[in-house]
Amino acid sequence: MTRFSSAAALPIHRSFLVWRNGIYAKAALLLTASCILLYALQHPTGPANGGTAVGYFLGTLAAILVLWLAWFGIRRRRYGGAGQLEGLLSAHVYFGIALMIVATLHAGFRLHWNVHSLTLVLLSLVVASGMFGSYAFWRYPQLMTQNRASATLTSMTAELATLDLRCRQLALLFPDDIMSLVHETVAPGTAHFGMADLVWGRRHNQVHRNNLAAIARVQTQLADRQAATPSEVLPLVQSLTQRLILMERMYRDWRYRALMLQWRAIHVPLTIGLIVALAIHVIVVFYDW
Amino acid sequence: MTPQFSIAIVGSGPGGLSAAATAARYGLSHVLLERTDHLCDTVYRYQKGKKVMAHPMRLPLLGEMPFEQGARETILANWQRVAVEHAVNVRLASEVNSIAKTDDDFTVTMADGAAISAAHVILAIGLQGNIRRLTVPGAEKPHVKYQLDDPDDYRDKRIVVIGAGDAGLENALALCGNNDVSVVNRQPDLSRAKPANVSDTDRAIRSGRIRAFHNASPLRIDDEGVTIDTPNGEVRLPADIIIARLGAIPPRKFLESCGIKFPSKDPAAIPELSESYESNVPGLYIIGALGGYTLIKQAINQGHELVRRLAGDPTPPADAPLLQNVCADAFPGKPVNLVLQYLRDHVPILAGLTSLQLRETLLDCTLARFGKGDTVFSRGDYTSSLWNIAEGAVSVELDPARPDNVIEVGAGEFVGELGLLSGRRRNATVTAAAPSIMVEIPLRAVRRLQTSVAEVQQELDRVAVRRLIHTTLGPDRPIAELEDIIAGATLRTYRAGACIIKEGETIAALYILRSGSATVARSEAGRENVLNFLGAGSLFGERGFLDDHAVRAATITATVASDVICIDAAPVRDTLARTPALRAAFSRAVQTQLAQSLRATVTQTQSTGPAGKAAAISDFLLSKGVGEATNVFIIDETICTRCGNCEQACAATHGGISRVSRELGASAEQILIPLACRHCETPHCMANCPVDAISRTPTGEVIINQQTCIGCEKCAEDCPYDVISMVDIGARKRPNWLVRMLATVGLARPADARIDTGAEHEKKALKCDLCSSAGGIPACVTACPTGAAVRIAPEAYMTWLREGSNP
Amino acid sequence: MTLVSFAPTGPVAAMAWPSVQLDQSEIAIGRNPASGLCLLHRQIRFNHAVLRTEGAGLYLVAAEGAFLGTAADPQQSARLAHAGDTTQIGPFILTVREVTGDGNVTLSVTQTNDMEPDEGALAQIYLRVFNVALPNVRLWALLLSCGLVVIFFAWPLLSMQAAKHDNGDMQRGGPSFSEPSFFPPPWGAASLWNVGAISRAHSGFAANCSFCHQTPFVPVRSSACLACHRDIGQHADPSVAPAADLRLQRCEHCHHEHKGQTIATRDSQADCVACHGDIRRIAPETSLHDVLDFGTNHPQFRPALVLDAGLRTTKRFDIGDLQAEDHSNVRFTHAGHLKLPKLNRAGRQDVCGGCHVPAPGGVTFKPVQFDDACASCHSLQFEPQHPEWRLPHGHPEEVASRIAGYYARAALAGEVFDRPNTEPFYKPGVPPPPPPPTGTDLVTYKTEAAMMSTIARSTCGECHVTIPPAAGQPNDAWRIAPVFVPDRYMPSSLFRHASHATSTCQNCHAAATSNLGAISLLPGIGTCRACHAGEAAPASRISSSCASCHRFHDDSLMHLAPADTATFTGGRAPPSMPAKELQ
Q: How many other C-beta atoms lie within 10 A of the C-beta of residue C10?
C-alpha cells in the first residue's frame, strides 16, 4: 500500500515514555539486571572497583552508553532520517537511567575526591537533569495546554497590553495618588522573572500580591472618598482584576515553557563536560596504569 | 489597379506586430495601423512593472518577436526594437473606420479620412480596444474609470467597482487594502470569475474588507457617488472613484460592417474562422484574441504563421511538432491532421470541439495503445485523468475479492471519471479487454473543456451519475435494471456547511456523494454529535428504503463544497420492489454502512467523557476543513513540548525554510492543526496554476515543481488554508561550522542565523511536499521527540478517535 | 463675561471639547471630569490649574504642587491676554488664537508628541518579558570542558612532571618520604588522579605518582616495587619449577594498590590449585603432594623433624608415622612432666605456659631456656653434700674444671671424703688393686668419677645426649650433643598461635600422652579441619584458602631483586641458589 496507510500505522499521540509498549524500558531493565548480576557474581581482589575484569567491562559499557546517549543530541538535529526520533528519545531516557546504575556498579559504589568520581558525579547530574526533563516533558505540556486554553503567547501579550492601556486610561479619571498607584502597578517593568520564579514560583506570589494590593488600595481609597461613585470605580477594578488573572496565567505559561526548556541548559553543557571528564578519566586510568 | 500594400494589418498588438515584422522580413509591402499613438496598447496599459507571463511554456515561439516572461517595460522595449530593426511600416493614430472589399483588394478607411488599399487585411485588434462602457446617466463624469493603472495611487478613497468579472474582482482586491471598496455585481453570486478570485473575494467580503451588492446594477452616477438598484431597493453609494469593469466584447458592428458573419447572437461570440485564420470574407484574416486565442504567445505565432503563408513560405503551426510528439506513440508517422480527424470520429467527448480547441486539448493528452490485459490504472492510485477508449474495450474490476465480476466498457466511452472529479484514489482497476487505443485527458484539460464546451460537462456528468449509481447500488447487477433509478437522478452541488438532509424531515430521496465529504450528526441534549464521516462515493439517506422509517434520523451536512447525486425516492422504491436481486445487492451495501455507523453511534452518544471529547475534536477538525484533506498534520498539545523540532526538521530538509507553522495554526480541544498543507482531495492550488507546476504524485502528495514554478502566487491565493508561502529561496544560506563555533563564544553573529548571500532570486511557491523531495517520510513527524505529531489521513484519525486506540 | 473657546488641534482633535462660558471667576483645568477643561493625560494633575480673569487679562494659575511650562522651565502662572500668548500644561500647549473685541478668547490646545505607549509596542515588550530562551549552552559547555581539562588534566599532569623531575634519582636512591606537597591530600594535584586510597605502607610517597607509575601508559613495572622490596623471595626454585619464576610475572598480578588501607592481595585457591593440583606436571621430580582444597583434598601434615641437630637438617615425616625419629638431642617427655603433681595441679590451664612463652608476633614461642623453665627443678648440683656447688648450664667445657675445683678445694681443706675402696681385695689370681689414691690423685679420681655420673647419666645426661671422650684420646673430654629444637615444625605453614589463644594448648597438642617428642605432640590435619574447611566453607566452619596458612613468597629461597640492578625486567639467568634440602 501507499505511504499514507503506513503513516496511519504509526502510533497516534502516544507519549515517548510508552513507545512501542515500553520496549526500551524493558531492554534497559534487562541490561541493568544483567549488570547487577554480573557485579554480584564477581570475586575481585580487594573491594569491587573499575579495575577488575567486570569493572572494565562495565566501564566500557558505560562509556559506550554515554557516547551513544550523547549522540542523541546530534541525531536530534539530523532531520529527515528514516527512524522516528520518538523511539530514540524513549531509548535515551531508559538507557540513561540504566547508565546511572551501570556506572555506579563500575565505580563499585566508591567516591573519592578525584577526576574519576567527578565523572560519576557529572554523570549523575546529567541523568538527574534528564530525569527531570522527562518529567517536564510528560507533565508540563498538559498543564500548559490547559492553562493556555487555545490562546497563543502573541494573543495573550496583546490582551495584556490592551488591559494595561485600559487601566492607565481609566486611572486618569481618578485623583493623583490613585492614578500614580495604578500606573506604577501596570507598568511592564513590574513583570520580570528570574531563577527563583522558575524554581520556586515565588515571583508568582509577588506579582499576585502587588496586583491585589493595588486593587485593594484603589477600592479602599475610593471608598473613603465619597467623590467617586461605584459605577466609575467598577471598570477600573474590573480591568485591574482581569489583568491580574491574565498576568498569573501568563506567568504560569512562562514557567511551564521555561521548565520544559531550561533543564537542557544543565543537561547539555554537563553532557559535554561529562564526555570531557570521561576522556580524562580514561586517559588518566591508562596514563597511570 | 494594384493595391498600395500587399498586407494591411489592423492593430499593433503582439499578433499584429508579429505579422508586420514577418512581412517586413519577407519584403512584403505592408502597413501596420494602430489606433493610439504607441504600439501594443493593451500591454502598454498594464500596471507599471507588471510581470507578463509567457505561457503556455512548452509552446515554441515562432517569428521575429522575442518574448519571455518579464516585466512589462522590458517586453515593450524589446518589441519596440523589433519594429525599428525590421523597419516595420507603422501608421500610428490611425483608427480604422471601415474595411470595404472590392474585387480583389480591400479599401481601408481611417478616421482621419485617409484610405489605403491592400490585397489582404489582417485584423489583430484584440478585444481590449473595445471595452464595455457604462450607459447610465453620469457615466461621462471624470471619476468614472474603466481601468486601474496602479492600485497604489489610491489611498483612503471610497471606491465602487462595477462588474464582478475577473478584472473587477482583481481591481477590488488590489484596492481593498487601503481603500473602502464596494463591488456591484449584476449576478446573484460571483460564479463568473475564476475560482481563485472568487475565493479571495469571498474571504475579503467575510472579513469586511469589501462590501458586495449582488443582483445589483448602477442606476445613475453623480459627483459624489453612484445609486444602484438592488433587490432591497435603491441604494446610494458615496464614491470618490467609480471603476467599471464590464468586460470587452468583439466590435461586432464594425466586423459585421466588414462582412464578417457571427455564428450566434451572443454578444461574446467570436467570428468563425478557417484553419488558416481566414474569415468568411476571403482575404480578411483574424488573429489573436478576436479569433479566440487569448494568449500573447499564440497571437505572435499566428501572425508569423499567417504572413508566411501569404508570402508563399508556409510553416506548420507552432504546436505541430508538439502534437506530432503526442501522436507518435500511438500513431507513428501519421500526419497530425489525420489523427485529429480520427479522434473527432472515435472520441465522442472531443467531437464537438473546434479545430483549435481540439489541438489545444490534444497538447495535454496522451495517446496510448494497450495490449490485451495491460493495466490502464490500478485501484488505490492517485491519478487524475480521464481515459477515453477510441478503439477496443476495457474491463473495470471493482472488487478485488471478486475478479470475475468486471464491467466491460467499450469504444467511444471513457473510464476514470470518478477519480478525476472526486480527487480520491482510483476505486477500481482497469485493464484492456482487447487491444485498445486510449486517449488520456488530464484533469486540467478536462476542466478547461468543461468550462468552455457545455456538452463535455453534460456528458461527463451523465456518465458519472450512471456509473456511480451502478457501482453503489448494484455493481453485480446489469445496469438495465437501474435505468429507472438513473432517470430519477439529479446532480446537485452543496456549498461547505450546507445541510443535505435534515433530521426529522420526510424521506424523499436517496443520495450518493459524488465528490467532497459530509458528516452525519444527530442532536443529543441540544448538541450536535457527529456520528460518522462520509467520503466521496458514500451512499446515504438509505434508511427507509428497506424498512418503513418515514423520517430522517440524522442530519447530514457537507463539510466542503460537494457534488451529490440525488435520486427520487419513488423510482427507487418501485425498482427495489420489482427486482429482488437488486434489492439484495442494495441491502448488502446498506448493511455495510449501517454496521459502521452503529459502531460509531455506540461510542459517541455521550457528550461527556472520552467519547464526548473525541466528538468535540472531530467537530473541531471538520470545522477547520480537514474533511477535504487526504493527509493532515495534527499535534496533540498535551504531549507537545513546543520544542519546535517539527519546524526545524522541515526547514532542515527543505533548504532552510519551514513549511509548517505551529504558531499560525488553529487549536482547540488540546489539538493543534499547524499551518501545513493537507494535500486536499481536490487541491485548490492546482486549479489555476498557469504553468502546471503543481501536481499530485501517484502516492497522493500534492507537490510544487520548483523548476517550473514562476512565482505568480496564484496557488497561494487559491489555497483556502494559507499553507502556501511565496519565498525567495536560496537567498539565504547556513554559515559554515567555523562561523557557528565563533558564534558560540560571541565572536560572530548568532550561530543559527542564515546569512544573506545577496544574490537575487525569484520567489517560489513553497508548501509541504510530505517530504517526497527528502526521502518520503515526513521529517516533521519523525523528528517529533515526544510522539505528539502525526501526519495522517483524516479517516484514519477519525477512526482512531472513535475507537480510542491506535489503528 | 468672557467666553473661552477651546480649539483642539492635532492628536487630541478627536476628543470632545467644550466652549466654556467664563461666568464664574475661574475655569478648572485638570483630569477631574468635573473640570471646565478635562485633559486626560498622566502628566496632568487631577486638579492642575485654573483659568481666571484678573484685571484685563486671562491668567492660567497652577494649583499647589503643580506647575506650568516644561520641567526645565516651570512656571506658576501664565498670562493669556493677547493672540499668540502661549503656555504649556503637561504635554499640552495652550495658545491664544484669537481675542475678539468683546473679550471672548479662543484658546487652541495642541498636544506635543508625548503620547501614551503604543499598544503594539507594549505587547512587544511583554513578548520579550515572557520570552524563554535557552542560554548559550555551547558557551557553558566550552567553559566547563576547558575548566575540566585545566583542573583535572593539565594541572595534575604538570605537577607530576615537576615532582618526577625533582625526584629523578629516587629510583636509585630509594624512596623519599618527605615528598613536598603544596596541596595536602585530598586536594593535591596527584590526588585528583588517585583512583583510591593508598595503603598505609605506601602512603608516604602517595603524592608522587611517578614513583610507581614510572612510564605513562605502561602498567606499573615490578621493578618499581622491587626498588624497595629487594628481599622478597621467589615462590619456588626456578631451576626446579621454571614456570613459577616470579621474574616473569608482574607484582600487580596479585598485589593491588589503591584499594584502601591495606594492599589487596589476590587470595584465590584456584590460582594455587592450577599448579599444585597436579604439581608433577610442573615439577616432575618434586616430593610435594597434590592439593586441591584444604577441606577435602590436602595431604596429611608432614612435620620437619630434626635429622641432625648439629647440621640443623630436617626430615619430614607424616603425622602418626611411628618410624619418625626426631634427633633434636634433647631428652624430654611432655607426658612425664605432666604427670608430676607439682606441674599438673588440677585446673591449671597455664601449665604449658610455665615453660612456653609466646614469642613476639604471636606465631611461635620463645625457645625454652634452662634457666627459666628447667632450673627450678633441675638444680645441676653434683655433690649432694654441697648443693650450693652447681654446674654452669650451656658451658660443658667448664664442667670438668668446676668439679675438679670443688674436690681440690675440699682436699685442701682437709675434708675427708670417701675414698675409693681401700680394703684389700683379694681374690685368687687377681692382682691386688692399687693402693687408694691420696692427695692430688684422689682429687683427680673423684673428679673423673663425678664426671662419669654427672655428664653421662644424671645431671646432664638426664636431658642431653652426651658423648664420652673417644677412647685413646687423652685430650678428649665429655661433650654434650648439639641441640636443635626448631621454632616451627611445619615451616611452610603460617600458623599463628596468638590467633588461636582462645583455645587451650591441649585441644590440639596431645601433650599428656606424648612420650615420643615432637611427632606425637603435633596435631594432624584432622585437628585443623575440626574448625577449618576449604575455600568454599559451610557457614559453620571457617573458610580457609591456601593463603590462610601458606606464604607465597619464600624469603629463604632467593631475592627477586639482584642488588646490582635497579630495574628488573625478567629474563636474566636465575642467581645461584643456596644448597638446601628441599624436603
A: 13
The pLDDT score that the predictor gives to residue C5 is: 67
Q: Using the beta-carbon criterion (under 8 Å), do A85 and B793 form an inter-chain contact?
A: no
Query: For testing the chain B interface, which of C138, C140, C145, C146 should be mutated: the one with the most B CBs within 10 Å?
Result: C138
Same domain for B597 and B618 = no
In a domain, B111, yes or no: yes
Which triple of cell numbers denotes residue A72? 542523541
- What CATH number should be reported for the domain holding residue B257? 3.50.50.60
Taking an 8 Å cut-off on Cβ atoms, the answer to whether B746 and C138 are in contact is no
Q: How do residues B640-686 score in pLDDT, each as one tens digit?
A: 988 888 998 888 888 778 889 988 888 888 889 999 999 887 788 87
Residue B764, classed as helix, strand or coil, is strand
Whether residues C138 and B744 touch (CB distance < 8 A) is answered with: yes
Core vs surface per residue B589-626: b (16+ CB within 10 A) or e: bbeebeebbeebbebbeebeeebbbbbbbbbbbbebbb
Report pLDDT for A279. 95
Q: What are phi and psi of B309, to 5 degrees?
A: -65, -40
Q: Which residues of B touch C139 (CB under 8 A)?
A: 744-746
pTM: 0.68
* Amino acid found at A223: A
Is the sign of the CA dihedral A107, A110, A111, A113 positive or negative? Answer: negative
Partners of residue B751 in chain C, C-beta under 8 Å? 138
In the beta sheet, which residues pair with residue C93?
A: C88, C110
pLDDT in tens, C477-487: 778 888 888 88
Say if the Cβ atoms of B751 and C142 lie within 8 Å: no
Q: Which residues pair with B509 in a beta bridge?
A: B568
Q: What is the DSSP letter of B626?
A: G
The residue ranges of every structural domain in chain C are: 2-117, 145-218, 304-368+485-523, 371-480
C-alpha distance from A77 to closest chain C C-alpha (Å): 15
Q: Taking CA atoms, what residue in B is nearest to A262? A: B643
Q: What number of residues does chain A have? A: 289
| B454 touches B541 (CB < 8 A) | no
Residue of A nearest to C65 (CA): A176
Inter-chain touch C195–A50, beta carbons under 8 Å: yes
Provide the edge-to-edge strand list for the sheet that holds B555-558: B499-501, B555-558, B518-524, B527-534
Q: Which residues of A touch B630 (CB under 8 A)?
A: 4
Q: What is the ipTM score, two decimals?
A: 0.71
Range of the domain at B376: 356-450
What's the pLDDT score for residue C426?
63
Residue ending a domain, among B244, B271, B305, is B244
Highest mean predicted confidence (pLDDT) among A139-148, B253-262, B502-511, C30-39: A139-148
What is the CATH code of the structural domain delimited by C2-117? 2.60.200.20
Task: Report the residue of chain C nearest A256, measured CA to CA.
Answer: C132
The verdict on B727 and B777 lying in the same domain is: yes
**B225 has which bridge partners?**
B222, B238
- Torsional sign, CA B568, B569, B575, B576: positive
H/E stretch holding B153 reads none
By C-alpha distance, the chain C residue nearest B747 is C139
- Are C142 and B746 an interchain contact pair (Cβ–Cβ within 8 Å)? no
**Beta-carbon contacts of residue B563 (< 8 Å; ≥ 6 apart):** B421, B491, B492, B493, B494, B513, B514, B515, B516
Q: Do B790 and A12 touch (CB under 8 A)?
A: yes
Domain count, chain B: 5
Are the beta carbons of B695 and B687 closer than 8 angstroms? no
How far is the C-alpha of B365 from the C-alpha of B347, rounded, in Å?
Answer: 13
DSSP secondary structure string for all residues of B273-326: --TTSB-SSTTEEE-GGGGT--SHHHHHHHHHHHHHHHTT-----TTHHHHHHH
What is the interface size between A and B, counted as CB pairs within 8 Å?
Answer: 126
Same domain, B55 and B87: yes
